[in-house]
Give the backbone structure.
Amino acid sequence: MKRVYDVDNISIISHASCVGREEYRGPLGELFDYHDTTDCFGKKTWEQAEGELSHMVFELAMKKGGYSPKSLSFLFGGDLQNQCVASSYAQAEDGIPYFGIYGACSTCTEGLVLSSLLLRGMEDDAVGGVVTTSHNCVAERQFRTPLEYGGQRPPTAQWTTTAGGAFLLAKKREVFPYISHVMPGRIVDSGVSDPFNMGACMAPAACDTILRFLKERDLSPLAFDAIVTGDLGREGSNLLYILLGEHGVDIRPVHQDCGVLMYDTSLSDCHAGGSGCGCSASILSCYFLPCLERREMHHILFLSTGALMSPMGVQQGGSIPGIAHAVELHSPKTT
Amino acid sequence: MKRVYDVDNISIISHASCVGREEYRGPLGELFDYHDTTDCFGKKTWEQAEGELSHMVFELAMKKGGYSPKSLSFLFGGDLQNQCVASSYAQAEDGIPYFGIYGACSTCTEGLVLSSLLLRGMEDDAVGGVVTTSHNCVAERQFRTPLEYGGQRPPTAQWTTTAGGAFLLAKKREVFPYISHVMPGRIVDSGVSDPFNMGACMAPAACDTILRFLKERDLSPLAFDAIVTGDLGREGSNLLYILLGEHGVDIRPVHQDCGVLMYDTSLSDCHAGGSGCGCSASILSCYFLPCLERREMHHILFLSTGALMSPMGVQQGGSIPGIAHAVELHSPKTT
């Protein structure tokens, strides 16, 4: 059965990125649309800060494209907070038909896949949106320990990014980068249960999606200017190379990982790299989409990867399943 | 702009329901496909029990319809556990392309809306699925207090159901009940912040969706055999009547609420009624779809309602926004 869908060119007609302090200090720092070096985004609690980040980055994507909430047919929103509440607080004013999604760090691509599939069946002038965020201080106290505890982290641990990305999509606007094909991921549980090694939880899911995508599309890795994974980090990326190698597939010449790209390791103590719903979302917006827009790249396979980690599940001896959704991106057809 | 979508007849080709003890003791008890009076579903923890409930009810829906995981193009899954982990654990084996969704108690209808919109653009033989669950013992300790604490509950409080519902959908199979139109809800925040009054959080969202749906479809409430809300309970239902009354709309002659239908108040101490992702899902499967199948009803407006409640958000003084998605259901076209 077909698992890759031809969505007949869904264009990304506007997008935006906002980040916090450590992300701004990273190698891509100057490329993000907005940064707040306090990580507070004008709010009193970290949770509220993430809600404001979500609101801000989506407003910015609408503003950059010249759209208002009324012009949107739907919005997919998601984050890492329990009950995905950063996104729902952020969208309580705009009145856009709203779908809450949860895919951990894969949420950005889950939203892009669903938006593409929905738009395919809608009128030609329909516009859909995706917004995803994460906040380091929220995630650390929710998933691991409060920052004040000062717990030591092993080298395989990743640093949840304080970041958000937002995207507006529409059918066949040929001056914009576009999505030609999408592949929803499936849940892959390899039995890894270490909450300080998200890369190992996600690598098998990334491998599963990449292998099935390349096979069904009959493409080799070198058909792409870049195969971009969401946030496997250094640990997960190396595991992915080993897993793909067992199937005779080598993506190393074209592979980039948003978790690796995010931080300057000489400045930030980020261990194996960045993670979180905002990681791949903000880097897709600030770096890869502009590369396509400027035609410095032409063809990208973009996969956000999610570790479906529940602290309660881990405390009860459960494993951490992974998932990876994929979209195939192209540079604009016309100028 | 159009907010109601004509999905051109998406049939519900199989469905199943599973519940726990209190739900089995309720007035619909004998109608559910399966019940476990221990609420444990063979597992050692409540969280794992909910995962097994999700797995079980979805397997049952596939079995009743004669489908296997390989025949499904996608599955939407969601629950109330942090990180929606009951659903992801439940789906770690089947390998179905998976989308995690979060809409609190509105999750069932969110999945039905998204499935209908996705299937509209797919091949004629595509089959999609939705599975949603909730578990009383998981929800109480996660959202409020552990059961052992024995906290008193005010009369406006609802009882999270231990229940799950699963649905398989496909295009135009005319011997099955079908969805003709769908309307995604939007987030409505009325400033209610009482975690023991979910009905008050959700009623404004239900009112918003019902008013907009009836207006855009140009239908009166009496065009339906039933307008079914997910789980407003007695408190929320009465608030909904007041809110709709302010717009001159009276749904009382045809209104039913799954939260009110679920329990026998003389047996179960459920206060204002049932709630949870599994409440409207299990009652849609055990009661309303069979009414359509037997042609005892012909036309139903079905809305699950969600209170997007985060304990952390409430502790920080935040409100509890609501959302309500809607599907318009019909009895089969042919026998």
Remarks:
- Chain B has a mean pLDDT of 96.
- Residues 153 and 254 of chain B are 30 Å apart (CA to CA).
